[in-house]
Write a structure and sequence with these properties.
By secondary structure, the protein is mostly helical. It is about 80% helix and about 0% strand. It folds into 2 domains: about 110 residues, no CATH class; about 120 residues, no CATH class. α1 packs antiparallel against α3 and α9 packs antiparallel against α10. The protein is globular and about 65 Å long.
Length: about 240
Amino acid sequence: MLLLIKLLIAHFLGDFVLQSNSFTKKKEKHQLKSPHLYIHVLLHGLLVLLFLNDLELWWAALLIMVTHLIIDAGKLKLTNKKNARWLFLIDQLLHILVIIVVYGIIENFNLIEDFQIPEQLWLFILCAIFLTSPVGIMLKVFFTRWKLTEKDTGIDSLKNAGKWIGMIERLLVFVFIISGNFSAVGFLLTAKSVFRFGDLSKAKNMKLTEYVLIGTLLSFGIAILVGLLFNNIIL
């Protein structure tokens, strides 16, 4: 496992810490013609060799360099304003997958046969997925019984910000519950109250305040319930 940790450290150093915004912009502008792309790839190879501290594993550094170049080149060619976020995520997942494969080769184990996900992790994944879009859609359907007009809201907010805030807060509450940090749930609820309900009180709109309050309580309540069920099942 220490070897995998070292490889991941090398990746995050090369892709984020040691890569400035200006460096990234030059890669995006000139793409495959940019020397910065190849310097970036070479840096990853050197970092891998440095952290592995074994010249006999030169092939691992070379494999990571070649795949990194292919993945980054594909990302640079395909990226536009609409898909930039998703391609960034896919790019990182592919890099990490390559690192896991390299780790598996070095440690000489079958990634498919030897790597088994425990039941507790499957349950965690189920709960985490349920608390994102599924609960969000359920709450949206529930709130169709009340309709707020633009006059009721009167708030200029980021597109889909409420959706993402809801998913993140439910996941945080779930993690706090299963880890036994119940006080952190109260802190999160207090923090949200300070930021959200402060603006609502200034707006002096009872309908909107009640709407947000019900949504918050339902969102937190579902996350707490799922967390408690998770703890009871794995015991």
